[in-house]
């Protein structure tokens, strides 16, 4: 039996629903449930990732290659000997330190990018030689680390980033060192924010 294609109106309804999913997960993240980044990654995958067997929702709508993607990342500088985390900063307070997604609070945002440049840009370079793009983080969280699937085996570089603090930042309290963790979660929050702003500017959401 032949499959029934979804109409453009149905695809647009899916887009509206998925934007709602992003907004809901962003609110939950802001409320302290930072594991919502895994659901953000899964929704980002639905919207953006094409494979030989499945097509992204924005691709099905003919929009993915037409959008100008908001880019808030600090460009990678290969001459900088420190670890690079281009989407997020560090925040220090009475309770210690954590990563921080700037959302709209980074005034030096770069010109919008085409999809391939944005999706494939290096946004984390750690001290162990691990390099990560937006695509790498989104797909690792969605496909391997609890978004839509849990893989019993992780890529060594991703495991070093998320379990071994390969970026290397720490803070001290009471003569004890604490690793600053969850760089992948805060980075995916910023990626979701970039996409929401991209869609808003294109008139595809009021968010």
Uncertain spans, ≥5 residues at pLDDT below 50? none
**N- and C-termini, Cα separation:** 40 Å
Strand order of the largest sheet: 2-6-7
Q: On the 0-100 scale, what is the average pLDDT?
A: 94
- The dominant shape is globular
> Structural class from helices and strands?
alpha+beta
Summarize the helix and strand pattern as letters: HHHEEEEEHEEHHEEH
| Domain tally | 1
Report strand %: 15-25%
Tally of individual helices: 7
The radius of gyration over CA amounts to 18 Å
Q: How much helical structure, as a percent, in the residues?
A: 25-40%
DSSP strand count: 9
Major beta sheet summary? 3 strands, antiparallel
Descriptive notes:
The protein is about 40% helix and about 15% strand. It is of the alpha+beta class and about 210 residues long. It has one domain (about 10-200). The strands form four sheets. The chain has a three-stranded antiparallel β-sheet with strand order 2-6-7. The chain has helices at about 10-30, 35-50, 55-60, 115-120, 135-145, 155-165, 185-200; strands at about 70, 85, 90-95, 95-100, 110-115, 120-125, 130-135, 170-175, 175-180. The mean pLDDT is about 95.
Question: What is the structure about, briefly put?
Answer:
With 207 residues, this protein is α+β, with helices and mostly antiparallel strands. Helix content is 39%, strand content 16%.
List keywords for this structure.
7 helices; 16% strand; alpha+beta; two-stranded antiparallel ribbon; 207 residues
Topology, element by element:
Elements: H1 8-30, H2 37-48, H3 57-60, E1 69-71, E2 84-85, E3 89-93, E4 96-100, E5 110-113, H4 115-119, E6 122-125, E7 131-133, H5 134-143, H6 156-163, E8 170-173, E9 176-179, H7 183-201
Antiparallel strand pairs: 1-5, 2-6, 3-4, 6-7, 8-9
Helix pairs in contact: 1-2, 1-7, 2-5, 2-7, 5-7
